[in-house]
Amino acid sequence: MAKYRIAWMPGDGIGNDVMEAARLVLDSMQFDAEYLHGDIGWEFWCKEGDALPRRTIDLLGDVDAALFGAITSKPKEEAHAELASELRDKGLTYQSPIVRLRQTFDLATNLRPCKAYPGNPLNYREDIDLVVFRENTEDLYVGVEYHPVPESLSEELTKHPRWARFIEKNELEDIAVSLRINTRNGCRNIVRAAFEYAKQFGYPTVTVVEKPNVVRETSGLMVRTAREVAAEYPGIELWETNIDAMCMWLVKNPQNYGVLVASNMFGDIVSDLCAQLVGGLGFASSGNIGEKLAVFEPTHGSAPKYAGQYKTNPTAMLLTAKLMLDWLGETEEAERLENAVAETIVAGEVRTYDMGGSHSTIELAQAVADRLV
Ligand code: NAI
Ligand code: MG
């Protein structure tokens, strides 16, 4: 019997290309795993009305970890139009399966390292080493949304002085409301994960990225909680910045920052910026980590225009596999994999299009694999 049971979920588009690359590399390391395929993605929404079928949720309840490629999500009208005809008008609504996975399995910590590997021609600077901790289950992405606004909600909101301005000028059917919901526990857990990481890996600061001067309650809760947690870590300084200013500072002086922590949407925004500083989405790995399950995925999406062409960069996916190895406690193997990726980058002989080369996804993975046997 293999040592680990790993759920294998390529999903849509280039998710398939980069997962094939990851498999090639994991096999060359002789990583001792049984891979169990999980259905997920647009195809299953169209055919079954569910992008995350029940059987996949059951599978995830019975594995050590999961690797996931990418999914395609489309807006409401297109989602309805592409549904199999017999499923239309059944009131089905599409929800991103990765968002559902995060919520179903309480994968509250989203870890997104962005390191400039020496010799990567796409590095913004060579001395960048950022790690974003993004809260993964709360905030504006919870999906508690209304359009049109129900009478009962409007009645409740009428108690708030700022609501009047909207109903004076608009019909309820012309107003959309999305709730931003954050909890003290959610804030505390993500900030604590960030501080623990800073402590373990010797980062001197943790920067909380929010907007408490404007979004006073939800962002305020995050910052107030961050201050409480920071008091438990005397050697590590808490820096507080606003999301907009942070985007400016990250372009100006990214080398000054280390661990960043943010609520779900601001963390989403800032992590794409961080990814671009170290080569773009082709280099950005991530883990969705809960207490019982962790699902590892590259930050990028399904990049439909490149699907099946084996052109995109598998590095993000390979570094994602490295995060999984770390999480499984295979830290030496994780380091071996990261070193092979770093050596391949600095050697510069095999490069995908984004790095100015013309090698394929599989050729780059093979170059990494050759350093691992
Ligand atoms: P995307 O990340 O799929 O691609 C944007 C662009 O980034 C690509 O066109 C390509 O130029 C570049 N890129 C992405 N991955 C790359 C790689 N490995 N190597 C080199 N270049 C790479 O984002 P987009 O176009 O906004 O979304 C496409 C679909 O993916 C949408 O349906 C979206 O909903 C979905 N998506 C899924 C995510 C997930 O599975 N977690 C995350 C983000 C988007
Ligand atoms: Mg994103």
Features:
12 strands; Rossmann fold; two-stranded antiparallel ribbon; 373 residues; 3 domains; binds 1,4-dihydronicotinamide adenine dinucleotide; Isopropylmalate Dehydrogenase; binds magnesium ion; alpha/beta
Spell out which ligands are present.
1,4-dihydronicotinamide adenine dinucleotide, magnesium ion
Distance between the termini: 22 Å
Q: What overall form do the CA principal axes indicate?
A: globular
* CATH architecture heading of the largest domain: 3-Layer(aba) Sandwich
CATH H-tier superfamily of the largest domain? Isopropylmalate Dehydrogenase
Question: How many domains comprise the coordinates?
Answer: 3
Radius of gyration: 21 Å
Biggest β-sheet strands, sense, barrel: 10 strands, mixed
Strand order of the largest sheet: 2-1-3-12-11-4-5-10-8-9
Tell me the fraction of residues in β-strands, as a range.
Answer: 15-25%
How large is the count of helical segments? 14
Give me a quick take on this structure.
With 373 residues, the chain is α/β, with parallel strands linked by helices. It has helices spanning 14-28, 42-48, 54-60, 76-81, 97-104, 151-157, 164-169, 184-201, 218-230, 243-252, 264-277, 315-327, 331-347, 361-370, and strands spanning 4-11, 33-37, 65-70, 109-115, 129-135, 145-146, 177-178, 205-210, 237-242, 259-262, 285-289, 294-298.
